[in-house]
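Recall the central idea of this unit: under ordinary conditions, the amino acid sequence of a chain determines the structure it adopts. In this exercise we apply that idea directly, starting from the sequence alone.
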Amino acid sequence: MILPIYAYGQPVLKKLGVEISSDYEGLEQLIADMWETMENANGVGLAAPQIGRAIRLFVVDSGPMLEEGQEHLGIRKVFINAQILEETGEDCSYSEGCLSIPDVSGDVERPEQITIRWQDEEFAEHTETFSGMNARVIQHEYDHIEGILFTELLKPLKKRMVKRKLEKIKKGEINHKYRMKFVK
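Accordingly, the structure predicted from this sequence is:
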């Protein structure tokens, strides 16, 4: 089922996600709905806060972000109770956007490589190091479960430039191509 994506201004987007256990009610269906919602919106990642749940869960499919012919180097994974253990390498700048903040993008600097521990949908634990675009997409979604939006990481001038757009999003005064939930 395609769920509404919570727009900028929704309080849940600023909450720290809580850990969940394997008996979280409806988890299998929730994950399936998150994949469907993300794909319907042409996203490459979706975190539970973006669909109104302040829990430590996100899905990533970075293949579409990679250059043509390199899509197979992307990842398609479910991350539950993730914890970034280490961020290394040079900070790299890349223009990011977000399904909760349509039509807004900006350069965000992030470390080139991360090591992260998480559980998959079977609650098997993994620790892995990711780099490049895979690391960037994971970091962006991880920020969501930490209550951080990419707009907070923009340089001060860019923050001022997008402020009016953010207010319009908060009020629902935008054209959007997928189901969204706005602040009332």
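The two ends are 23 Å apart (CA to CA).
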